Amino acid sequence: MRLTVLKIGAMVLLPVVSMAQGTTVIDTATAGRSSINDALAGPAAEIELSGASLDSDGLVISRSVVLRGSNSASPTTLVLSGTTSQEKLGPGDGIFVCGSGITVSLENLILIPSLDGSLKDDMVVATAQNASSISLTLENVTMTGNDGLGAPVSPPDLVTGLPVGDPAEAGLPDDGIHIVDSRFGGYDGDVDLTLKDVVINGAGFNSPKGDGIVAHVSNGSISFDNVTLVGSSRYGIQIGGRGTVQTVTPAIATDSALVSAFNGRSGIQVFSAASCALSNVRSHGNGYFGIAVQASGVESFALADAFIAENGTEGLMIANTPPQSVTYTVTDTDFANNGQGAPTGHSDRPYANVKLDSTVPDTLVLQLQSSTIRGSSASGFENSGGGRIELINSTVVTSGADALARTLRLDTDTMPDTVPQ
């Protein structure tokens, strides 16, 4: 549920203008580092940042609120220090959302770490307490590094993976978004996470385990609409828990629901989820897998209208032991030239575009419907387990011009050439 914006008439902006149960407007040109936390201590349902940039203390949000930049076309840059409160996972996050039954929305913002080194963990963390749920929405939000001058680092080009700016510029210290569920003592609720028009760039520049998103929800949900995850040191997104994961058809035809590219290991890593349905997805140029389903308990997995291309090992790896007989479906998906070669130190064995691992039991069926598997550098598909791969109106091309062509559909299909700013 999103809080309705309360329109306020013409006013003279002082450093902070506050109206109870209405909107607090913060002029970033004159505001101090504690201004947002001071406003969060008050009753306003909405906090609006008017201005280009604000150096801010780490934020602790424990009540329902909308925090937004005033201009959707020119989001406000928040240069965040780390939180100092003793959270369950320790201090040092940029924004820590915690509470019971609250609704929080972050809008029209660019989040970058301060150069003081205190933001040493995740940019946004959310935890639900008292067996309740938090509804967390991020819309028109970019998370990226600090260029050393207090400005955001430009994400790399999505076609080549090459940096747009100085390649030495840093990214995020660790994860972009980390959802903490009831696996941790004291946190017994769930988080419903909605992401729309979100970019997370360079998660984990000083951590080998940095993920764009870590989302483990026991009963909650995760929804994606035009989300780009690029350049994480490990996974673009790590999905777990027992909740529901889905992508939403974007309102703009040139957008993709979820793009995960040039991450160190997997673009999309599914460890467990009661239901995982991904459509209009692009995962390319990742160090290992385009998509990997590698855990027990994934009861339902569906992939549709996807483009999985030029990943280091398999385009799609299934290494899952489901709780019962299941059929996973892949529909209208193009696997192109996966198996380009994993990072140094990994096996040099041949890689398949699509693979069922040896751990897969004979109770699992993978159906490829109206899909294409192409590429001379990798075999079409491999079944090392007891499961079954069924090709239904699908094509496998392993030689000839079609196989050799670089088929990144970035210019002609539904994916933008560059990360939206």
Q: Assembly state here?
A: single chain
Count of β-strands: 31
Count of alpha and pi helical runs: 2
**CATH structural fold name of the domain at 21-310:** Pectate Lyase C-like
User: Architecture of the domain at 21-310, CATH level 2?
Assistant: 3 Solenoid
Q: How large is the radius of gyration?
A: 22 Å
Q: CATH class of the domain at 21-310, please? A: Mainly Beta
Q: Spans with pLDDT under 50 lasting ≥5 residues?
A: 1-20, 403-421
**Approximate helicity band:** under 10%
For the biggest sheet, the summary is:
20 strands, mixed
Outline, from the CA principal axes?
globular
Kindly report how far apart the N and C termini lie.
26 Å
Strand content: 35-45%
Class derived from helix and strand content: mainly beta
> Which whole number gives the mean pLDDT?
81
Could you characterize what this model shows?
The protein has 421 residues and is mainly β. It has a domain at 21-310: 3 Solenoid (Pectate Lyase C-like), CATH 2.160.20. Helix content is 2%, strand content 40%. The protein is built from 2 helices and 31 strands. The two termini are 26 Å apart. Mean pLDDT is 81; it is low at 1-20 and 403-421.
